[in-house]
Amino acid sequence: MEIRNLLTFVKVAEMNSFTKAAKVLDYSQSTVSFQIKQLETELGCLLFERINHTLILTDKGRELLKYAQQVTRLTDEFRQNMSKNKRIEGYVHILTPDSLCEAMLLENYADFYMRYPGIRLKFSTADTEDMLHILNRNEADVMLTLDSHVYHKDYIIAREARISTHFVVGANSPLAKRDEIPMRELVSEPFILTELGMGYRGVLDRQLAKMSLEIQPVLEISRTDIITKILENGNAVSFLPDFITRRKVEEGSLKYLNVPDIDIDIWQQLIYHRNKWISQALDAFLRYVIDKEFDR
Fold it and tell me: Side-chain half-sphere of 188: how many Cα atoms within 13 Å?
C-alpha cells in the first residue's frame, strides 16, 4: 500500500471531491481517481459512493480514514524531525465572529507568533451557519464560535464553555443607577449592537422574538472596541460578552445592567470537521487556543 495513495484518499475525504483534491494536490483528476481505485482494489472494498452528485465515504471508507489520518500525521512528523529546521511550520485558516477575531489578534497574536514563527494564520469572519458550510467544503481548518450551542455528528468539539454576557452602559448613564430594569422597558433605549444575525447578536434577537420584542439599534458595527468607547461617553446600551467589557467594568467606566426577565445562553466552541487531518500546525493552534481562550 503506497503512502501517497493514502494521502490522496485523506484529501478526497476531507474535500468530498476528486476534482478539488486534485487541484490542491496538483494532480490530474485521472491520477486521483487511479490512486483511489488502486486502494479499493488492494483492500477489496468500495471507499466512496456517489449519491445525488455528492461523494460520501462508505463504512469501510470511514474506517480506513482513521488509519490513513494516523499515517499522514506520522509522515508529517517524520518529515519535520528529519528536517534541519525543527520548528513547526504550516498554514491554518480560522473562522471566527468579528468580535472574537479582534480580541484574539489584539491579545494573543504576538505571543503566538513568538512561539510558532513558522505557522502562517489566516482569519476569516462569518456567522456560525456560514462557518459550518465552509468547514464542510474544507475551505477552512477550524472555527471558533460565540453563539447558541452547536452539535452535529460530523464535527468534533475540541473545547467548549458557556460565556457570560451582559447588557452594558456607561457609568454615567441614568440606567447605571437602576437596581434592575425589565427587558420590555430596555428595548426602547438607544442600542449599539454588533451586526444583525452574527453570533451572540443573533441569539439575542431570537430570544427577544420569543418575548414579542425587538431592538432597533441606532448603530450596528462589528468593532466592539468602538462600541465600548461610545458607551463610555454617552447614554447608549449594548449587549456584549464579559471578556470584552470586564476590564472597563472593573475600572469603573462601564456598568452591567440587571435585566432579570431574560436569560441568554451563549457558548464559545472550538470546532473542526470529523474528517479533518490534524497537521502539526493545526494541532499547535488548537492547543494554544484551548490554553488561552478556555483555560484562563
Answer: 5
Strands 219-220 and 192-193, bridge-based pairing: parallel
3-82 maps to CATH 3.20.20.70: no
**Residue range 232-255, pLDDT digits in tens:** 999 999 999 998 999 999 999 999
142, containing H or E segment: strand 142-147
pTM over 0.85? The answer is: no
SS3 150: coil
Q: Could you read off the pLDDT of 279-295 as tens digits, one per residue?
A: 889 999 999 999 888 75
Query: Is 182:261 a contact under the CB 8 Å cutoff?
Result: yes
Q: Quick check: do 90-162+267-294 and 165-264 share a fold?
A: yes
pLDDT tens-place string over residues 62-77:
888 888 877 877 777 6
Q: Residue 96 corresponds to which amino acid? A: T
Identify the CATH number of the domain defined by range 90-162+267-294. 3.40.190.10
Query: Other CB atoms closer than 10 Å to residue 47's CB: what's the count?
Result: 22
The strand pairing partners of 121, in sequence order, are 92
Backbone angles phi, psi at 161, to 5 degrees: -160, 145
Residue type at 60?
K
In this structure, which topology does domain 165-264 adopt according to CATH? Answer: D-Maltodextrin-Binding Protein; domain 2 (3.40.190)
Q: How far is CA 189 from the centre of its chain?
A: 32
- Structural domain boundaries of the chain? 3-82, 90-162+267-294, 165-264
Burial of 232 (0-12, 13-18, 19+ CB in 10 A): middle
